[in-house]
Design brief:
111 residues; mainly alpha
Length: 111
């Protein structure tokens, strides 16, 4: 159950990004804003420009490493770690196939 929940709930950071960037507090508003943001990115890329990267904090290497370390201290977190790792792996594979890995900030410490 923890594996399944964590592999889905990791995407709450997409909502956090919509709240931060567009002040879209309602989930449905954030969803539709995100769809428009993706279209905007596609338009930038069609013009040969690089879109700004999105920051989904739970998808970063630092958060994943922190969760891994916490899992050694609290074994109950292992299913959460593996669920989130599964989700991130699926995201990465999709972005590699669609050649959109540059759209997301994968590491917090890089500019």
């Amino acid at each position: 159950m923890l594996f399944a929940l964590s592999s889905v709930l990791i995407d709450v950071d997409h909502w956090f990004w919509a709240i931060y960037k567009a002040k879209k507090w309602w989930l449905h508003e954030a969803y539709f804003w995100t769809l428009k943001d993706i279209e905007r990115m596609k338009e930038y890329e069609a013009k040969g420009r690089m879109p700004n990267q999105v920051l989904h904090v739970f998808h970063t290497a630092e958060f994943t490493t922190l969760l891994l370390a916490a899992s050694f201290l609290l074994p109950v977190l292992w299913p959460v770690f593996f669920g989130m790792a599964f989700h991130i792996t699926c995201d990465m594979l999709e972005m590699i196939v669609t050649k959109t890995t540059h759209r997301r900030k994968w590491v917090l410490l890089r500019r």
